[in-house]
Amino acid sequence: MSPILLSRRRLLCLSAAGISSAALGSWEGFDFLGDRDGAAREFLEKANSLTYRVQRLLVREGALAPEYTEGEVRQGQRANG
After folding, report:
1. Using alpha carbons only, how large is the chain's radius of gyration in Å?
2. 38: how many CB neighbours lie within 10 A of its CB?
């Protein structure tokens, strides 16, 4: 079994990532995003739609993965059939 090499830089990066993940994961400040009528959620939805519109303007047709409506999606295939 080979020893795991851990440099000082990698240790610092992993420590920072672990500490910030633990802190943000347990923080209850993000509970407002579950509220469907909240101003923060509305702002994020508008920002998301703006991002999609700008992306469609900048990227040529067909470069992104195609998007389908629910009616265009076929049902899943069976394993042996």
Report:
1. 22
2. 13
62 Rama sector, left if φ>0, alpha if ψ -120 to 50, beta otherwise = left
d(CA 12, CA 56): 39
pTM for the whole structure: 0.37
Question: Which residue ranges make up each domain of the chain?
Answer: 32-61
Angle 74-63-53 from CA coordinates, rounded to 5°: 90
Burial class (CB in 10 A: 0-12, 13-18, 19+), 70: exposed
Q: b/e for 57-67, b at 16 or more Cβ within 10 A? A: eeeeeeeeeee
List pLDDT tens digits, range 21-80: 877 776 666 666 666 777 777 888 899 999 988 888 887 776 667 778 888 887 776 777
